[in-house]
Design goal:
The complex is a heterodimer of chains A (386) and B (330). Chain A has 386 residues and is of the alpha/beta class. Chain A contains 14 helices and seven strands. By secondary structure, chain B is an alpha/beta fold. Classes of the chains: A alpha/beta (386), B alpha/beta (330).
């Protein structure tokens, strides 16, 4: 046992020395998460602000101006032009001058006092991002004013000669603003996406790096010289995990910090709990990478195999597409990757601020998963060359 | 058994490939007594590396038996690894570690105490002539120095047996000599059993026992003198003025057993030197080929090896088409 510990110590020291000496890889490993963080956060963030909007205020009193001011204050709408009637608005949307229109009827104030206030929101249906953002925002603001909101999606049909005809959405949707967004009342997309991105970045880093590490020794030939020592497979596998574990946790800290400071995502839960959950998750991801590494013949192969958890994680882990609406098979495949569990845990702690009592089942699965995969990796690692 | 450091009996190793099974090593039997320097000699791809890897337990054995210090290669993996030093052919010590870090690493994985390390490491660095290079990265050492470092690392735990797979591959002649002198010292001073793979015939002469391996089979074994004595007849050497006709004229003559080329010289194996010398001179003269003096030379390992390989090939061709494919040092 003591001899085993001494061997393990020597192996860990070797791995750390080698890692610190390879400055270029180290810099890459630490900067890649940041690049991914910014890319994903901005690319996935589909919320559209400052939608150019045309206004028809037929009421033009204190109440209607107050309402319009609220729309502007929401940052979602920019009042760029005033018109006299609805048709002018539709024409402007058709020309592409504006993406949205707000039509306030003449007796807005009196109707609102009676609780039957009504506003028409026109949205450019060819720009789905603007539609969904504008739709959501308008609904929320309407709710504050207890208004009946009628929205119409205007869809261009054919943009050929003749200026293009347009049709007004078949059914104007009167919504009673039943949408209530919990935890994220301003529906800020990045709040939802960032805790998941932290997980994705961590998994990418851990799986990629771990996948390379054993096969690298094998490809370089250093493995033979190490195998002929009394080192046991488990010692070797674990020693390769330790420095990567530290590095991944470091990367997580930086990613988290930038998420909180730069993207102003408030961290609601316990950092202490989050740290331990992340540790569990990184161990599982590293083990998955090591398993790949013991299976691959070359570094190239390992890298290609490591793409699998990346892609499945991105698509099936629940980061972008909700898992609840997935058919059984993709949902099941998603369950094979640690990211799926961690995204749930991360969102719960990060955004909802809940404690262990709500995430324990995912944590337990992650723990068992990590243990099983570490053992599989150590078993797949044969103390021989063939 | 107690007298033997390394044994292999009927050792066979087959690799599964997509083209089917490939036999890299077939029915190899060898015995190395304690304190001997054993050389497994053969060309590239003959199966040297596979043989030692199987004996060391680095590859699984297909058939036969093998052991080191009485420990079975397959069963007693870690007993062997604790007691044996090994320099792999590609020998890649972590190049991004310094000489000292390499030594400390190998001392650590062999669970040496700190006191033992403090004593042993400077000793070995001194022995390998690396005392002044402790802070140099292993990857930045010259080829010869890399091998010396590898030797020092493989000796860190005072093994009883050292296995070296082509330790002087890609090393200049001066460093090669130095390296062999180090091995000589080890044997003389510490009674170490050394097993070395090499394609170099001059290195074979430095071994106390050798085995010639060709196409996965050991075709001859014994002391260097015994091996050379296996060659029938004597060797006459000369330089003809025009080479191919001379070779043709001599080949197949009465009493000529074998003809080998050696640079611009011909080596002719004959049964009786004075008688055949006159015959050869006459034959060359009739073809109008001039030449320098025909002289009898001592049979060297190289001539012996080529002769034995040629004989083996003739036997194999007569028996059946050669089925053995060399596995090489993949």
């Amino acid at each position: 046992m003591q001899k085993g510990l001494q061997r393990f110590g020597a192996l860990v020291r070797k791995e750390i020395t080698q890692l610190l000496r390879d400055r270029r890889s180290l810099a890459f490993m630490l900067s890649l998460p940041l690049i991914q963080l910014f890319l994903f956060s901005y690319a996935v963030n589909s919320t559209v602000y400052h939608i150019p909007t045309a206004v028809v205020d037929q009421s033009n009193d204190r109440k209607s101006r107050e309402y319009l001011q609220a729309m502007v204050n929401s940052q979602y709408f920019d009042m760029t032009v005033q018109f006299q009637n609805q048709n002018q608005v539709i024409a402007a949307i058709d020309r592409g001058d504006v993406k949205a229109g707000i039509v306030i009827p003449p007796d807005f104030a009196t109707d609102t006092d009676r609780g039957t206030g009504n506003v028409l929101i026109l949205l450019d249906g060819s720009d789905s991002a603007s539609v969904s953002s504008g739709f959501g925002a308008a609904g929320l603001i309407a709710q504050m004013y207890s208004l009946q909101l009628t929205t119409q999606e205007i869809i261009r049909k054919g943009q050929g000669a003749g200026g293009g005809s347009l049709s007004v959405g078949a059914s104007a949707l009167p919504i009673t603003a039943a949408t209530r967004v919990l935890y994220n009342p301003d529906m800020i997309n990045v709040w939802f996406i960032l805790p998941g991105i932290v997980g994705l970045i961590l998994q990418n880093l851990a799986v990629q790096q771990a996948a390379l590490i054993v096969v690298k020794d094998r490809e370089m030939g250093t493995i033979e010289q190490i195998l002929i020592t009394p080192t046991r497979p488990l010692e070797l596998v674990l020693s390769k995990m330790i420095p990567l574990l530290v590095l991944s946790m470091l990367a997580m800290g930086v990613t988290l910090l930038i998420g909180i400071v730069w993207f102003s995502v408030p961290f609601q839960g316990s950092l202490f709990l989050y740290f331990w959950m992340a540790l569990l998750f990184v161990v599982g991801s590293l083990a998955l990478g090591l398993l790949i590494s013991t299976r691959a013949k070359t570094q190239r192969q390992a890298q290609q195999m490591a793409l699998l958890p990346m892609i499945f994680g991105l698509l099936l882990g629940g980061l972008i597409y909700p898992r609840s609406s997935m058919p059984f098979v993709p949902q099941f495949i998603g369950n094979l990757f640690p990211l799926t569990y961690f995204i749930r845990i991360s969102r719960s702690i990060f955004v909802k601020g809940v404690g262990l009592e709500f995430v324990w089942s995912d944590a337990l699965i992650l723990g068992i998963y990590s243990l099983v995969v570490v053992i599989l990796a150590a078993r797949a690692f044969k103390p021989r060359l063939d | 058994m107690n007298n033997l450091a390394i044994t292999a009996h009927g050792l066979t190793k087959r690799f599964k490939t997509r083209q089917g099974n490939v036999t890299a090593v077939e029915n190899v039997t060898l015995e190395v007594p304690h304190g001997e320097t054993y050389g497994l000699i053969g060309p590239d791809g003959a199966g040297k590396t596979t043989t030692v890897r199987v004996i060391l337990g680095l590859l699984t054995r297909t058939e036969g038996e093998s052991s080191i210090l009485g420990y079975d290669s397959m069963r007693d993996l870690y007993e062997i690894r604790q007691r044996v030093g090994y320099i792999a052919q590609q020998n890649v010590l972590p190049g991004d570690l310094t000489v000292m870090e390499n030594m400390l690493f190998f001392a650590g994985v062999h669970s040496m105490t700190r006191e033992a390390q403090k004593k042993r490491i400077p000793e070995l660095l001194e022995f390998a002539g690396l005392s002044n290079f402790t802070d140099r990265l292993a990857g930045r050492l010259s080829g010869g120095m890399k091998k010396k470092l590898a030797l020092a690392c493989s000796l860190i735990h005072s093994p009883q047996v050292v296995v070296l797979d082509e330790p002087t591959l890609g090393v200049d002649p001066v460093s090669r000599r130095e390296f062999w002198n180090l091995l000589g010292n080890l044997r003389a001073e510490q009674g170490l059993t050394i097993f070395v793979n090499t394609p170099y015939m001059d290195e074979a002469e430095r071994c106390t026992e050798i085995g010639l391996i060709y196409a996965g089979k050991v075709i001859a074994s014994g002391t260097p003198t015994q091996i050379k004595a296996m060659i029938p007849g004597h060797v006459i050497e000369f330089t003809p003025s025009i080479f191919p006709p001379a070779q043709k004229a001599v080949t197949g003559m009465d009493g000529v057993l074998e003809v080998q080329t050696y640079g611009d010289k011909l080596h002719v194996f004959v049964d009786d030197v004075p008688r055949r010398k006159a015959q050869i001179e006459a034959a060359l003269a009739s073809e109008g080929i001039t030449h320098d003096d025909l002289r009898e030379i001592e049979v060297r390992m190289e001539e012996a090896f080529i002769s034995l390989v040629q004989r083996q090939t003739r036997i194999a061709e007569a028996a059946a088409p050669a089925s053995t494919i060399s596995g090489g040092a993949a």
